[in-house]
Fold:
Amino acid sequence: MTLQNNLIPIIAKAYRIERGTTEPVEQWRMRVIYSMLGQMAYASLWDVEENEQPVSVVHFKSRMKKLIESYCDIFNDLHKSFGYNYENLLEEIYTIQLNGGTLYHTSYRLAPNQYSCASAEQILFTRGMAPGEKRFVSGQGTYLLSQEKQSMNSPQRMFQLPEKTLIETWEHLMRTAKWSLFHQNESVEFLRLEPPFKYGYWQRQKEEDHEVSLIRMGINENRFYYLYKEKEGKSFVSQLPTWMTDGHRYRRVSNALLAAKDSLPVAIYHEDGPIVTLALRYLMPAEELDFIKLYSWPTSCIELPHDFNRIFAKDVFYAVKTALEPIGYQFVKE
Structure:
């Protein structure tokens, strides 16, 4: 019973994962275990085989699976927070670390990134630290308090955040667009340009009184995206390159378009003692969202991903906010 009572607080203290003033203890415990799983999986990268081959993705995930199964044996009610099927959780943690630059991935093998760090506010973002080194954890991201060590590097460079603002991105798209005549068909979807966005980002009908918009055609992975405008009763399009739109990368364009039209929703945050809850009302492009997800916890570990609602260590949140605001994102305190 002593081990059961002390295990979570010991891990939380080591990683500096504090419980919010009004936060349910079950959620705090979920956050501690979520971070611990990722850190132990990261430590498994040093389990180099006798042939000196880097560890496999399977090895990385199996370390987490064994741990979560052990914790569920210790804490009988943990299934309420993690369910019984952990595959989505393991994939989520792996993907967040991979996209956040913590891991190198090649030929089904994994290796830790080289050490790097970047300062913002009172936080020193870190990656590539050896398992035994002291570090704090917010979500899956590691950090130190910047009083302990300084860095000339910036989060923008370390996490490959864009150099252009959203408005500058849109202006560049307008300058380089190559328009051609377009005949509409039934497969066209128009980007929703006005809130509420809870009904989805795309719709069949176009909105009036917007000079330039964004459309897409096709299905699933075979979609093509175009800038769209009307002039003198005719429709024109300028196709966007696939590297800019593959997956969800079109959100770089959609965020830029909404920012230019002053209709990009602000993100709402709420302080709860040592933590901050963040509600995104429009998903950011991949690089910014990966940065946010690396340094935050989901509000639930059962139905993943939870990209719209995240939890941060408070001082880490303000450092992330400082890095993202110059791009053009707005954060409003609730």
The longest helix spans residues 25-43. The longest strand covers residues 222-231. Residues 2-157 form one domain. The mean pLDDT is 92.
